Amino acid sequence: MKVRNPRTGEYDYELVEDAPEVVEKKAQEIRSAHKTWHKRTIRERVSVLQKWLGSFTEFQTEIAEQLAIDTARKRIAKVETGGIIGLMQAWSYRGPQLYNPPAERPSASATTVQIGQQWVPYGVVGVISPWNFPLLLALIDTIPALLAGCGVLLKPSEVTPRFMDGLEKSIAAVPELAAVLKLVRGGAEAGKAVVNNSDAICFTGSVPTGKKIGAACAERFIPAFLELGGKDPAIVLEDADLEVATDAVLRSCVGATGQACQSLERIYVHENIYDSFVEQIVKKATAVTLTTNPDEGQMGPLIFEKQAEKIQEQIDDAVSKGAKVLTGGKVENINGGLWCAPTVLTDVNHDMDVMVDETFGPLIPIMSFSTEEQALDWANDSIFGLSASVFSKDRDKAIEIASHIEAGAISINDGSLTNKVYDAEKNSFKESGINGSRMGDAGFLRFFRKKALLIQTAHPETMAHFEESSS
């Protein structure tokens, strides 16, 4: 499989795909090693994780350089590798605190029975991760699953696979880890093989693909933890600090070139401050610099060619229906890379694709509202419910508005805070996801099944219990 370089447009890397039988063999090897792995104490698994942290640090520069090619983002690549070190440290600290199966206790409903509980980790957890933050989203589920005692079959996206080379070296340096964590290379067929050989699936990606994976998991009767797309709204109330709101909205919409599921993608601004908001954000959007020189600038090219096509289609659809382009507006080929400057759109509405379909690009469509009820109706007029933002100087008012937004996480006076805050448990609403939270303590606890041991301390009931004459 030839892999495109997002900066040059050249297909300069070859990914050798794992055939289904290879994936099956890797899963079997994990299952064999899992018999020992899950019997280790949580502290012993932390010790192995700490060894991996050491080897990961050794290969960190190499992994970051590979990520920088995969994504055409040097600074964010360094942030991703640093974030993984933070995750390893955080779960090494928090995991042992959380692993605390309840002590044996008497049953409240059957007084002669003692209840014991065991937490049983899944054998093989399949992790299928996307291309936008390739390393972080590959390991955000993998690390707590391993610590819980699961083995992991990990398939990162075939769009951004280069970083796997360095990552695999860091894993191989820790034999105990390499036995229960194996990488899978390939596209859709490899992904199907992961689903077919796992006991639980963690998938991050688009809604259409997530639905297919969810259906395949249902067919096999295994759990699917699905983190899917978003169309995050921002509501900017009349009393909002415009400097705060425009800074946060711009960063959320176009940071990482808008290629994040929690990016703000539709902005609703009170009519009394609408003109001032638009004026300020246009000025700031125009000042954003592109990294056509990879050593300077703020915003890189689009990673995935098909996504670039979708972004241009949304812009064209909006313009054909009356939208105005105030900045940007065109996906351009610069030295082989596909670039889109921050694009501010006004005169938009919900008849346009840009206001209802996920964009995954640096577009800022803005509508004005006259009442809070209208803003909430528009914010909730979506199949998505990932996250959202509310801006207001009145903290209580912002929280009140946030309580009516149908989404799993609401940032107040900022945008996309879920990319910084990992310890707040949340669930995605609507089609943005399903099942246990990857954030907060649930990100670890969801990898256990609860087994009850029911211990009778008295003589068991006999068949005399069913004697009709004694009723």
UniProtKB/TrEMBL annotation:
Entry's Gene Ontology molecular function annotations: succinate-semialdehyde dehydrogenase (NAD+) activity
Top-level taxon of the source organism: Bacteria
Catalytic site positions: E227
Gene Ontology biological process terms from the UniProt entry: gamma-aminobutyric acid catabolic process
Name of a matching Pfam family: Aldedh
Signal peptide segment: none
The keyword Oxidoreductase is assigned to this record: yes
Aldehyde dehydrogenase domain span: 1-451
Keywords: Oxidoreductase
Family to which this protein belongs: Belongs to the aldehyde dehydrogenase family.
Name used for this protein in its record: Aldehyde dehydrogenase family protein
Source organism (scientific name): Maribacter algarum
